[in-house]
Design brief:
The protein is of the alpha/beta class and 342 residues long. The chain folds into two domains: 10-82, Phosphatidylinositol 3-kinase Catalytic Subunit, Chain A, domain 1 (Ubiquitin-like (UB roll), Roll); 86-100 and 119-332, no CATH class. It is built from eight helices and 15 strands. The chain has helices at 31-42, 86-100, 119-127, 142-154, 156-165, 213-225, 234-250, 312-336; strands at residues 10-16, 19-25, 50-54, 58-60, 78-82, 130-134, 169-174, 185-187, 189-192, 197-200, 270-272, 278-279, 282-283, 296-298, 304-306. The strands form four sheets. Strands 2-1-5-3-4 form a five-stranded mixed β-sheet, covered by helices on one side. Helix 3 packs across helix 5 (156-165). The chain is globular. The relative contact order is 0.09.
Length: 342
């Protein structure tokens, strides 16, 4: 039997979790046909699918703006499929549920006194900590993610802040980049039900690298502040900055080296810490009817825009204005620093 591919067929190769997957389509196939094949053959529902196409095309995800986009226009381009299968999502949800379930306290063993050891500190560190660390097992190198989570848990500054504020978190886990990334922004962390579960974006969007350690640690400070305050109001930001200062002050190691120096793919501009604390598994946007909550967007120039109750379009516009302002200031500073004519 002839198994060769007809000359007029379209062949696309996708990369998913670091592995290439090849599909063959008829010449008139569209991006909607690609989504159906991924759902049926890879068990990744359309809701979880994101196709990062480079160069130029950018992010495509169902429901597509143009479902009739011909697949022939994607031939020869690099296509990165980001998305989790139903089984992977179910496994993660089961893990979160188990970690959040009430636990029976085990028997407390009597401590043996020893000189020059602060046993009160030892007991507090055992109580006020992250009791379970869980990487995502279906992503590459979960053991490396576990070491990253252990480093955060054992960070001298983080441990001191946990004791000071009496934070006890049942589960600290990593975030799947594909689940919280859009063409406009990416979420850095999540806090569910005032510290029941904290998720952190450890990896780059392509899963093949890790973000800077100090950036992730700062995101963790942000999420720990949500243990007390949900909305991004004045109370929240005062506590967040306080925790950041305490972590820096009590980090006797004076920081550490970065884990992974890879950057995000081109086309992504904005980063969002989060959207306030989770309640019942749903996002609760910061701020009240008359308050000043909301999200803070960190733009690619390093500046911040207080979102308040603005729409996404307004947030992006303000971020663009901030970048233009910084560019003008840099240009003026460059002209002002030139040498005077002799």
């Amino acid at each position: 039997m002839d198994t060769s591919t007809p000359a007029d067929d379209i062949t696309l190769t996708l990369t998913h979790h670091g592995s290439p997957i090849t599909f063959t389509f008829a010449q008139d196939a569209t991006v909607a046909d690609l989504s159906e094949r991924v759902a049926s053959e890879l068990s990744i529902p359309a809701l979880n699918q994101k196709f990062l196409v480079s160069p130029k095309t950018g992010l495509l995800k169902p429901p597509f703006k143009d479902a009739t986009l011909p697949l022939s226009s994607l031939q020869g381009k690099k296509i990165n499929l980001m998305g989790s299968t139903i089984a992977e999502v179910t496994s993660l949800n089961d893990s979160i549920s188990k970690a959040a379930a009430p636990r029976r306290p085990g028997p407390i063993k009597a401590a043996t006194p020893a000189r020059n050891r602060d046993w009160k500190k030892v007991q507090e560190e055992a109580q006020y900590t992250f009791h379970t660390l869980r990487p995502l097992p279906y992503l590459p190198n979960p053991d490396r993610s576990l070491r990253f989570l252990e480093r955060l848990r054992d960070d001298a500054g983080i441990k001191a802040a946990m004791r000071t504020h009496k934070f006890s978190v049942p589960l600290l886990t990593e975030m799947d980049p594909a689940m919280h990334t859009t063409h406009e922004s990416r979420t850095l962390g999540l806090n569910r039900n005032q510290g029941e579960v904290i998720e952190l974006r450890l990896r780059t969007d392509a899963y093949d690298g890790y973000r800077d350690y100090k950036t992730i640690r700062k995101t963790l400070c942000h999420e720990l502040a949500h243990n007390v305050w949900g909305p991004h109001d004045r109370n929240f930001w005062e506590l967040c900055k306080q925790i950041e200062r305490e972590v820096d002050r009590d980090d006797w190691t004076r920081g550490g080296h970065s884990v992974g120096n890879q950057e995000y793919a081109e086309g992504y501009e904005e980063e969002v810490y989060d959207h306030g604390g989770w309640t019942g598994g749903e996002f609760v946007l910061g701020g009240s009817a008359g308050g000043g909550g909301g999200e803070t967007v960190v733009n690619s120039a390093g500046g911040t825009v207080q979102a308040g109750n603005l729409s996404r379009r307004e947030i992006l516009a303000k971020a663009a204005e901030e970048r233009m302002k910084r560019a003008r200031q840099a240009e003026e500073g460059s002209r002002g620093s030139g040498e005077a004519p002799s």
